[in-house]
Prior knowledge:
Elements: H1 2-27, H2 34-52, H3 62-80, H4 86-96, H5 103-113, H6 118-140
Helix pairs in contact: 2-3, 2-6, 3-4, 4-6
Amino acid sequence: MQNMISTKQLGQKLLLLSFFIAFISCATISQFDQYAYVQTTSLKVDALQIMDLAVEAYDDHTDEVLKLKADLQKIYEYEKNRPNNAITLEMWEKMLKEDGNLIGGFLARWEEKGTQSKVFINEAKKIIGPAFDQIAQLESKKIKPSEI
């Protein structure tokens, strides 16, 4: 009988702890933002389309690349100024890192080498596309203001 009571008390404490953790986690991540979600999905499409151009000389597509970089920097700045948004911001920092393996690194290598092979582009898209998806999925799973 004593074990049943302590098990019940333990269950209650675990339930309270779960509620507490859920409450704290809600306060440590930003709410869903439609603009951030739309920008992320839109930038994914733009980035993948521009990546296809890398079989051609970088200098022939400087304007497109500069526009993409500016748009990426705009969403980064937007995300940076949202409260409780450290996780998303870290994901964007990795995305934009010029010595990394995501879009920032891809664009830097294309500029450095002049062109990229179709095989390399296709393999890079298999990494970069899902990275954009992860950011969009995180945003879409955040609490919507109507759910509060």
